[in-house]
Amino acid sequence: MIIVRRAVATDMKTIEQLLTEASLPAVETGNGRQHFFVVEEPEQRLVVGTIGMEIYEKCGLLRSFVMDRQLWNAEIGIQCIEILIQYARQLELASIYLVTQAAEGFFQQLGFAPISVDKLPIEIQESTPVQKMEQSSSVMVYWIQH
């Protein structure tokens, strides 16, 4: 059994470690855009995954979806994305965007649709993940609207 909860300050070191192990960019602290959740194994109180979203005006940029490979399954992945989508609704965000090199089918099943970079809101276009993505031809951008 696992639980998904909002990350607290004491989770940040573990989140950074998960991101590093997955070769993902570090969390940009201090800008107030970062909103992370953690996936926790409650019996041992062990953080085994994380999912985050950067907030820009009225939209969010999904980032850093990482799970321990031994515990990963599609059900947990869907639960994490659904929690993040519900959180975006609570914040009254109009859209959520994501940049990925894999799992296109997974995100499309959850309602995300392909979008070209030039159609992204300017603040998302200028974000670090999208700027880094433009250097790779194998990356896809998706969005979902509420």
Automatic annotation (TrEMBL):
<feature type="domain" description="N-acetyltransferase">
    <location>
        <begin position="2"/>
        <end position="135"/>
    </location>
</feature>
<dbReference type="Pfam" id="PF00583">
    <property type="entry name" value="Acetyltransf_1"/>
</dbReference>
<dbReference type="InterPro" id="IPR016181">
    <property type="entry name" value="Acyl_CoA_acyltransferase"/>
</dbReference>
<dbReference type="GO" id="GO:0016747">
    <property type="term" value="F:acyltransferase activity, transferring groups other than amino-acyl groups"/>
</dbReference>
<keyword id="KW-0808">Transferase</keyword>
<protein>
    <submittedName>
        <fullName>Amino-acid N-acetyltransferase</fullName>
    </submittedName>
</protein>
<dbReference type="InterPro" id="IPR000182">
    <property type="entry name" value="GNAT_dom"/>
</dbReference>
